[in-house]
Specification:
Immunoglobulin-like; alpha+beta; four-stranded antiparallel β-sheet; Ferritin; five-stranded antiparallel β-sheet; 361 residues; Late sexual development protein; signal
Amino acid sequence: MRSIISFATFSLATLTWAAPARKRADFLPDGQYFPLANGFPNPSADQIKQIQKQAFGTLPNGAPPASISTDGLTNLKLLALNELFEVAFFTELVYNVTNKLPGYDLGYGHEYVLDELNAIVAQEQLHALNANGALQKFNAGPIQPCKYSFPVTDFQSAIALAATFTDVVLGTLQDVNQIFAKNGDDGLVRAVSSVIGNEGEQEGFYHILQNKRPSTLPFLTTGVRDFAFTAIQSFTIPGSCPNINTIPLKTFKPLNILTTDIKPVTQNLKFSFKKADAGVADWWDQLSLVYINQQNVPVVKSLQNTVVHGDTVTFEAAFPFDEFEMNGLTIAAVTKGAGPFPNAPAVAQAAILGPGLIEIS
């Protein structure tokens, strides 16, 4: 085993966020996570001090920029939405590991892992407080937490999920920084970049727990805010997000990845979607499957072997792993038209279905 901790090997080659399985029934089955015992998401000053001790660091105490763009505010709202989701996820994971529920008794290394997970919970709480605090300073209402449901049943499935959504976050924060810079919000770039480093450290930890290489790619896969916004909503209970409507981002229809245990070889992958979601009245040749991987120009492939079963459409598309060394995270989307797409934002602009998430490492 390559890991310093011995766990059963678990491989999650693909993850479709659009249709999560039913969550565990032994932790907050109503999906209501907040407020936590420490007062989060509205802790007192003394409670914040305790969170900082658990996180091994503090909230930034420098002065914020004097102003922010409209697009910059959208960035902060998305960051707050994501961090609240992460706090809920890791709070449940810590609960399950602490209580050694079935599938969460780690044996050797249990206390080491639990100590790190407790630090991660606190760090994500500070990330959320920082984003919502900035929104308040710019006279925008803080994003309020939703109710959540997570498709995990044991420690290894939870860590695999954490690794995948952290990869998405690492790509999305690239987009956030780019948008800050383009809109003159450069005063916020340094803090967000520090969070990228923290999330990268966390990702290396999740990889070790899965007996994977801690560092996957020389240039991490980029992301787009709309894809992350859609992905987060797949973990929320519909209608439970009090002010998600204040985030002006696009929500895509689901794209399901049917191929499992995807190997690092060139192959055809199988996908599905609801016929009504495509909106093209059986003209499937108008659609393309697009892959976003690393910092490369998106790869466009045609839909093959398209079959309609009732209201479900299945198809295949080539996955050119060998040509582009498509390790790490690949984001798949179905677009109207074949592009060409010069970058990930151009894919999101044309996308109607997604994101489908593929992990190879």
